[in-house]
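User: Sorry, what's this?
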Amino acid sequence: YLFLSYYLPPKAPLRGTKMTSPLEQADDGGGLTISSMVKEFQGLKDKFKREDADSPSPFSDLEKATVLQECRVFSDSKVVTESPRKCSQLITKLLHIVTQGDAMSSSEVTEVFFGVTKLFQSSDASLRRMIYFFIKEVAETCNPDDIIIVTSSLTKDMNSKEDLFRANSIRVLAKMIDATMLGAIERYIKQAIVDRNAMVSSSALVAGTHLIRGSPDVVRRWVNEVQEALHSSSDMVQFHALSLLYEIKQHDRLAISKLVTKLTRGTISSPLATCLLIRYITTIVRDSGGNALASATGRAAYQFLELSLRHRSEAVIYEAAKALCNLPGIEERDLGPAVAVLQLFLSSPKSTLRLAAMRALSSVAIAKPSAVIKCNDDMESLIADNNRSIATFAITTLLKTGSESSVDRLMKQISSFMNEIADEFKIVVVTAIRELCLKYPLKHRVLVGFLANFLREEGGFEFKKAIVDAIIALMCVISETKESSLFHLCEFIEDCEFTALSTQILHLVGIVGPTTVAPARYIRFVYNRVILENAAVRAAAITTLAKFAARLPALQASVSVLLRRSLRDEDDEVRDRATVALRLLGENITKDAPGDGEAEGSQRPFRQDALAADSTRDLPLQPEIHLLLEPLPMSFAQLSAALKEFEVAGSREDDALALSLTTLPVVDYTRPSSQSAVPASASLSSSNDSAELYKIPELATLGRVHSSTSPIQLTESETEYVVSCIKHIMSEHVVLEFAITNTISDQLLVDACQNCSVRGKM
């Protein structure tokens, strides 16, 4: 009414008077303006919203016992026939109780089912649909014997003259019956498939799709009726018929190929069925392998897909374009028609089409970025799209297809909307920027600076970790970024709330920092972590400082002073790391250590001559300093297994071996091939085999076992005597361990011996 009053034609003005517009009338205090209309509608909207929020839910205080008591009115035929709305409300309450997890006992379910069968007396369409819905939801959880109660009523409805009753009863029966009951209603379902009513036919086809999983042989007999339904004038019937026909013939590849070839000649008019056909064609071409256009089938599929690009339905056009982009082995020149159609979708007023087109173009840009370059202008206009998903796809695709000259412009556009999108989209953008930097290394300053700026912005752990991983990956590939990237990361840990990222960056600083031009500039960032952070970060910072001192003798004295301040840290791990680091650096931790009477923050008088003397002295490093500078020669799992083997060897009387990395046995985790059937007694792990050697005094004196091979089968696994060999490699010896397995139960092997021969020169 408000809009009509606004658009009523004005009366003809009198001669000599001036015609005024509605907006001018508003300035004079009279008339209706758009702003006032918007305010009035907003007030009505807020009013209804408040009323909806204040009104309680009618199902908030339901009790199962009360509802079941009310459902006893189902037995009253007068209530059923005269008050169908009341019965529908009771069924709604029952469904609410069931969906909330309040299970009913078997006796309650039986009683309810008996009551529901009484509701079939009513011919009200709304009540009947509620009955079907309740039976379909509850039948899967009730006793199979109770299902028979309503089966006869549903079968009666399946033969009814009302199309609504027939269609719904077929769909409910398909959810309830099994293979033994299907034979009794098979004739009715086959008739319903070719019914003139589209709703009945679609219901029967959907029922067949459900029944083929449990009774495939029965449903395959309906192939003639399904093929007839495929030529129906209803779009939905064609879609369901094609889906069921494919389910029937999916195990016969030749039959599927013939079906698809026949349907591509234009016998299908339904857009939904055409989309389904395109997906089947794509599946066939992909399963054939190789180049899609090399075979006759692939060329015919390409022609059909290209023809579908001119279909009247937008869904079919998009499905065909996406299928063309995903064809295996397709050349870039063959993608032109599909990319052109997707480019038109980018300027569509429908956000769904724009999003779908951007998703397809983004996937194409991963493998063939040059094919999407002509869409760059259209994609740049989508960076400011209200849909943030579309904008994210647009910017990430532009980062894949953009030129080196457009990097600066893209970075400015990205900065304007990065704070408006979620972290999951930000991670996608970060990944695209990393790939762009690897593509154009000369732009590393701009791109790494962009990533560093967003390290200091708000964001979750996954987003910050993605940026840190991207910067570290660029440092490994582009050496020019090492200095600036490391400095950016050090500035980030000054205000980092994630312990895992701080420890990761500190570990990186300990490796890369000493190799930079000015390594001393990073000491400040590392030591700040010792003062300000939690125990885990402090421990990582201590290890990083020790690496600086070990690699840079000029900084060793200064770093040792910093390490001494952590000897009385409140955390055991930090104190232990500081102690070990000073020991490895050759420092005497008892000398000049803080006394018990000194305050923790007290400082000794500073003397420049002493500092000069300390800075020039060469501290003796311990031989074990490589533990800080080099990674372990084995994994933690192997170290644990090696320590267990060493413990077994130390349990003997001869314990002359000292515990060190050189005396630890090396455990080989290579497992035997799964194809060789090795008996359990012969397929011992290498760690156990090495441990057995230390139990033999004659072999234990030969030295450390560097490596043990997996069992090598010297005979066939089917022979009477299975022989395998394990080689134990030592510093100056090779021990061969033979295992003989007797597979004959009534024979015993005695006095077995081996005869080894050497080939070639030793």
In short: The first helix runs from residue 2 to 6. The chain has a mean pLDDT of 79.
